[in-house]
Amino acid sequence: MADIQLPSQKRIPRLGLGTWYMGENKSQRQQEVAALRFGIEYGAKLIDTAEMYGEGEAELITGEAMRGYRDNLYLVSKFYPHHAGRKQVITACERSLRRLNTDHLDLYLLHWRGSVPFAETLEALYQLREQGKIVDYGVSNLDLDDMQEWCDADQLSLCATNQVLYNLKRREADYALKPFMDSKQISLMAYCPLDQGHLLQHPVLRQLAERHDATTAQIALAWLLAQKGVIAIPKSTHLERVKENLDAAELLLTQDDLHLLNEAFPQPKSARDAQLQMR
């Protein structure tokens, strides 16, 4: 499974570990650290986190889990929209670096759009890049209009990714957003790649899981990894599930498999179809 080449010519792994909801319950901290560390030792090369997750606790957990492994990892974090001003982005990044116990982020994302003009946020990201505190930058949760506006404001044209909700059941990005991103060589980082487990009992997924001696989660992840320019960041705190998710990288779906999945979970053909999928 080849890494994705970004506009900066850097490369990003296509499958990693998510941390959404980590750091919200102190009693689960050691289990969360252990799950991330197991994933890293099992071969995960990417971890995605954010200052929002547990109000910084997920970054602390990530920093503890990756101790001794930082050089082998692609590290992604995100900043709040209310930290998107020129000075605030710098400060937020420095806080994240301290929590993660690292000197740089491989990718730093605006978590969602707020009131700060994109040009101002980009100025701060350019500065962080020049200082070596981040390698690449990007966005999260931007729709097509916002994505176009961001690209118009990006004087370097080096946006690496847009992290959005994307999975077999939620394919609204396929209608217009993803084609635009593909044209700009901007990767799509899919959060909730398993729809928080809601699609895993689907009969077609079960049929294909039996055919490949796999699990339905692995089929859903393999479908994502078969899509152009897509990165998946499933999250789990259970070691066996972490292993299962990472093993999906070894699963190759056939054209017949993909046809069955596209019939069961059709790509939206219109803006109305895309809106219906969002409900």
TrEMBL record:
Residues 14-263 form the NADP-dependent oxidoreductase domain. It holds the Pfam family Aldo_ket_red. Transmembrane segments: none annotated. This is Aldo/keto reductase. It comes from Vibrio porteresiae DSM 19223. The lineage of its organism: Bacteria, Pseudomonadati, Pseudomonadota, Gammaproteobacteria, Vibrionales.
